[in-house]
Amino acid sequence: MNTAPAETRQDRFDRGLEVLTRVDGEGGQKVIDSLADISPELGHQVVAWAFGDIYDRPGLAPRDRQLVTLGMLTALGGCEPQLDVHINAALNVGLTPEEIVEALLHSAVYCGMPKALNATFVAKKVFGERGLLPVG
Amino acid sequence: MNTAPAETRQDRFDRGLEVLTRVDGEGGQKVIDSLADISPELGHQVVAWAFGDIYDRPGLAPRDRQLVTLGMLTALGGCEPQLDVHINAALNVGLTPEEIVEALLHSAVYCGMPKALNATFVAKKVFGERGLLPVG
Amino acid sequence: MNTAPAETRQDRFDRGLEVLTRVDGEGGQKVIDSLADISPELGHQVVAWAFGDIYDRPGLAPRDRQLVTLGMLTALGGCEPQLDVHINAALNVGLTPEEIVEALLHSAVYCGMPKALNATFVAKKVFGERGLLPVG
Amino acid sequence: MNTAPAETRQDRFDRGLEVLTRVDGEGGQKVIDSLADISPELGHQVVAWAFGDIYDRPGLAPRDRQLVTLGMLTALGGCEPQLDVHINAALNVGLTPEEIVEALLHSAVYCGMPKALNATFVAKKVFGERGLLPVG
Amino acid sequence: MNTAPAETRQDRFDRGLEVLTRVDGEGGQKVIDSLADISPELGHQVVAWAFGDIYDRPGLAPRDRQLVTLGMLTALGGCEPQLDVHINAALNVGLTPEEIVEALLHSAVYCGMPKALNATFVAKKVFGERGLLPVG
Amino acid sequence: MNTAPAETRQDRFDRGLEVLTRVDGEGGQKVIDSLADISPELGHQVVAWAFGDIYDRPGLAPRDRQLVTLGMLTALGGCEPQLDVHINAALNVGLTPEEIVEALLHSAVYCGMPKALNATFVAKKVFGERGLLPVG
């Protein structure tokens, strides 16, 4: 929650890190770590702002945020590394493999077949790594 | 459902039209009508395929489909007419104004501020038309 | 053709202007005119480079170039003013209204329904202005 | 054609598979096969809808559909796997290597140099695999 | 600067508002005001995060930030309202009309002619409102 | 400068090559070389038009052009190979590693976190190759 009366930069980071770890698991931490020698500030902002200030707000359930996120990452294109992290995250917050696959099928209507296919093949990779294939 | 043993083109259209009307209300019908003199086949495919074959599948709740759809339309950019239809649809299938606004705030993390702002101003227009302002 | 032994900047412009006029008709000229007080150099490059150096090459028929162009403008999104010019251009170089509508229907497979719809509604406007409605 | 009085789901798939095989060759089949354990329904829709309902319509020649498709895939960006399939398809339906290369050069005008380059390097890979280098 | 030992939410907003006003002038304030009844939190984040946390960092001059921003908004497409604000901002922080026009001409190389034209016509509107036409 | 009274195709190429070499170093030359057997004309246009006609214009400093270019390539998405060339180019024309990293952090506001991350990881690769890590 972002109504605390006063926070240091570190407070906001710590708050975000707790959310990041809960949602993205080690995939999120790896991204932050890999930014350490190039742009630690971008890592800080992902944690403190994206996860601390936005993700943690109570107005939309974590599961619902992942549905919106999967739609966005599929539509943007070229975001396969982020889809990898967020398909893992979707599983972490309670979406089933069947729901994820259905959401990506649904994306074909709005984004076209190529982007739906690209996202679905990322799901295949993630599900394979987690022993969730075949789906259904 | 798409397991019926045999359907005519008209059967598929009728099935999709029922879903379109339920989800999009008159906004969807207006889009189909406006295609009549330029591309009736595109209107047919929106109804028979997008709504009949995909939207009606049981694997993801209508409300969840709208969350994915809002994410995609925001990310694609330049889809304000479709956001208008689908923010209406989101309300029709049970998302609250607060959830919709929160989903669009969430989109800032993944799509950046400009696209989040563009989508939010479409929501402002739709909510205004439906007497739902101010939100919260 | 761009194998002339030596050309001035004006030569290249004149050569491109002949192609622009043939392909885009007055729509193209209007765009160039409207750039005169803000970026005459952009107008020059559209004429001398896009039309003089690229469009005029013999390796692909003008009609075929318009098919590729309609696909690109539909996919990019937010290019409705350019779609207006190039749907007119497509008619000018011999594509039929039915072929244009079919190309935009085809785009739904690769770009999704929203972009296919946006492009089709530009075609409706252009065809209406040229007395070509209803199509088919 | 999609005017058959009544078709089963399997009928539509079979009809589409015949078109897919003719246009995309084994590249298309490989994509469908690779979806079997993650999203067989997406594979079904690519075949039954994209190829059965849309690609097979008589209003635009297969060669012309590929020109539109190359334009769209180049413009979308991040669709290199689909460009691979569809540059092969373009050759299969009668576009020459020279026409394909010229279409991708043309794309630089509308999509900018980076996307034109990305698509051209996919063409280089495909042409190399088919013994078609150097072009011209 | 974001090294203050502890800040309230209001502190961060106030700090960002000072930057927003300096960079965007009244255009920025109007955007925030128009969010008041639909998504005041999005307005807060634009001010507190985008301007307070990022824009105000010392590592890149305001003028340089506007050059990057003009490039991004042109490339994204469909962001004409934001281009309006940021072409004004570019003038506010010291870019000349000639430099802005040149940056948008430069964008044709990377984004293609349609997006370069769309952005240039926004510049024409802004420059006209500020009595800066003709340029050069 | 493009006001020379008359130039051959070769003159324009030679003029552009001098600029390309100065800005992009060997990265640019490699791209041109790799086009030789697939689309030498695209290579010619990159050199003669993009670098000869546009890059070399005096209205915007090379350093400023790279700032705009980094913004565009980050926003477009899927342009990692071009980001590689142009992050090198940015260093070649005088931007510091710190400024480049800051520009990419700034991009998160307008393009969202995924595209900012993708671009930053290209910078990490380039800086690593040039012995510039860690930054700051």
From TrEMBL, chains A, B, C, D, E, F:
Q: Fetch the SUPFAM superfamilies from UniProt.
A: AhpD-like (SSF69118)
Domain named Carboxymuconolactone decarboxylase-like: residues: 40-124
User: Pfam families from the entry?
Assistant: CMD
Molecular-function annotations in GO: peroxiredoxin activity
Question: Could you say which residues form the signal peptide?
Answer: none
What the entry lists under Gene3D superfamilies is as follows: AhpD-like (1.20.1290.10)
| Source superkingdom | Bacteria
Could you tell me which PANTHER family the record lists for this protein? 4-CARBOXYMUCONOLACTONE DECARBOXYLASE FAMILY PROTEIN (PTHR33570), GAMMA-CARBOXYMUCONOLACTONE DECARBOXYLASE (PTHR33570:SF10)
The protein depicted here goes by the name: 4-carboxymuconolactone decarboxylase
Origin organism of this chain?
A: Planotetraspora silvatica
